[in-house]
Design a protein that fits this description.
about 45% helix; Rossmann fold; binds NADPH dihydro-nicotinamide-adenine-dinucleotide phosphate; 7 strands; binds ligand L4XM7KOE; seven-stranded parallel sheet
Length: about 270
Amino acid sequence: MTAVTAPADFAGQVAIVTGGGSGIGRAVALRWAVGGGDVVVVGRRTGSLEETAGLAERYGVRAEAAACDVRDADAVGALVDRVAADHGRLDALVNNAAGNFVSAAEDLSPGGWRAVVDIVLNGTFYCTHAAGRHMLAAGRGAVLNVIASYAWHGHPGTVHSAAAKGGVLAMTRTLAAEWAGRGVRVNCLSPGPTETEGAGAALWPTDEARQRVLASVPAGRFTTPEEVAESAAFLLDGRRAGYVTGDVLTVDGGQWLGRAVYTDGTRGGGA
Ligand SMILES: CCCCCCCCCCC/C=C/C(=O)SCCNC(=O)CCNC(=O)[C@H](O)C(C)(C)COP(=O)(O)OP(=O)(O)OC[C@H]1O[C@@H](n2cnc3c(N)ncnc32)[C@H](O)[C@@H]1OP(=O)(O)O
Ligand SMILES: NC(=O)C1=CN([C@@H]2O[C@H](COP(=O)(O)OP(=O)(O)OC[C@H]3O[C@@H](n4cnc5c(N)ncnc54)[C@H](OP(=O)(O)O)[C@@H]3O)[C@@H](O)[C@H]2O)C=CC1
């Protein structure tokens, strides 16, 4: 008989969400809490983290705001160990923290390159290395890395972020194969243009830039953090996605596939 699975249910589980004080990270943390899971949100700004934790607690779960810069490997290690000890388990890690701005490669300073690569690539490794040890010891866990489609196709003006996200994609596939036999899944989620303050300020700060981004999406709209969080919940749920590892779920309204050249994009025939 075919078993029909219930909706995501994270009751009794514990997740760490980096960049959980805003945008997509906040929505993922709240979606986890809606499923009944305890959550620890990590970032640099305490105020926004506390706001997320307060919202999560409304769902009756334990929620904590933990100030930590993911570029600090020692601080990350201490935080992850403390969370695992406090809760007696660690089921999920969402590597969502990121920094970004648009810069021509030739204008980018070494400091600008380092800032983004340290947050996105090194920060993801530090968190995954620390959390992975607990998950491997328990024989279960899910790591979800938030990337962007330019990880595989590149995009002018984003050499730091594209290189870092590309590294995260390679890390994901490598660890997925390394850890699959020990119960730990590692996947990527690749959102398209999503209405968040951080991305708006960094990537579409003017109406004109926003319209240009919008024009690149076949679906004709931006997405929301909440819509992205539903896909995150699927990948984190071992009952629904237990056999999915090393993959990328792209949630971008078709953006990376590109807009029509020969038609107006609303029908399959000639223009
Ligand atoms: C063009 C693309 C459009 C494509 C269509 C859209 C498709 C969607 C794909 C989008 C994918 C990804 C999206 C995102 O990641 S959105 C997340 C955005 N959120 C944030 O960036 C929030 C966090 N950001 C930050 O903390 C900062 O912006 C920063 C990353 C810079 C890190 O902060 P930190 O305080 O550590 O860094 P500093 O301010 O000290 O700066 C460090 C060096 O970086 C240089 N820098 C900073 N800003 C800029 C800039 N705007 N332009 C050039 N250089 C910059 C700064 O000068 C420092 O360098 P030096 O040491 O050399 O001075
Ligand atoms: N919005 C979009 O269109 C898209 C976003 N993405 C990806 O989605 C994810 C979330 O982006 P979005 O919600 O839009 O952006 P936000 O700017 O809202 O989120 C970024 C988060 O990362 C945290 N962060 C940044 N640097 C650090 C650090 N050094 N240590 C700890 N936390 C840090 C920030 O908190 P704080 O400043 O307090 O540290 C912030 O909460 C990112 O990985 C981004 O690359 C991918 C494709 C499209």
